[in-house]
Recover the amino acids of this structure.
């Protein structure tokens, strides 16, 4: 049985609808990675695609992932690197908030090999890492692509929700400009190509 977990209700609903269309028996739950709503040793495989990295409690996350995996279970993570486009979007959004308190942990540390190995060393073996370059190709303008991400990316949604209307508009404008400046497409205004990168992490539960 495949189970999906996310904090964003409308994305979960979209996932349920798509799974139904494809005839896939997938269960989708709303919840938080810091308190996974599953018994110990529930899964043979645990996958996070740009999810767990945004938790402010990395030690708790590492412990919870280990808890719900069976011994010998496989862990697979994809985490944006600090130098990639994901890091650039975070830097733009960060301009609209006060400096983080001392001790605040950047989510993009999950995109650094040394940090990941240190966080997983207690409960995982055979840790492998690899930086993967990915091209986002969208059949919409750069401005339209920025708006799509503002509406559908959970972390951006959370940040926008903490701002008043004028600052929301300003942040959306700055994200739009970032997408325009980094668009590699040369075949028309209604096409966007962005180069990004993530750290691929594979490990085995001890």
């Amino acid at each position: 049985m495949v189970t999906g977990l996310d904090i964003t209700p409308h994305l979960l609903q979209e996932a349920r609808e798509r799974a139904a269309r494809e005839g896939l028996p997938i269960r989708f739950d709303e919840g938080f990675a810091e308190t996974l709503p599953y018994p110990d040793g529930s899964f043979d495989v645990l996958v996070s695609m740009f999810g767990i990295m945004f938790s402010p409690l990395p030690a708790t996350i590492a412990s919870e992932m280990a808890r719900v995996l069976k011994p010998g279970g496989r862990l697979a993570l994809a985490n944006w690197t600090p130098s990639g486009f994901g890091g650039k979007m975070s830097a733009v959004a960060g301009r609209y908030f006060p400096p983080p308190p001392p001790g605040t942990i950047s989510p993009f540390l999950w995109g650094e090999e040394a940090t990941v190995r240190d966080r997983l060393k207690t409960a995982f073996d055979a840790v492998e890492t690899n930086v993967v370059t990915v091209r986002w190709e969208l059949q919409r303008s750069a401005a339209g692509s920025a708006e799509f991400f503002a509406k559908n990316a959970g972390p951006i949604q959370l940040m926008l929700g903490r701002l008043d209307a004028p600052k929301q508009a300003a942040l959306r404008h700055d994200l739009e400009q970032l997408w325009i400046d980094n668009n590699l497409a040369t075949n028309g205004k209604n096409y966007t190509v962005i180069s990004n990168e993530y750290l691929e992490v594979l490990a085995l539960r001890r």
Summary: Residues 32-205 form a domain with the Rossmann fold fold (CATH 3.40.50.150). The longest strand covers residues 124-138. Helices lie at 9-22, 58-68, 85-94, 113-120, 142-152, 154-161, 165-182. The radius of gyration is 18 Å.
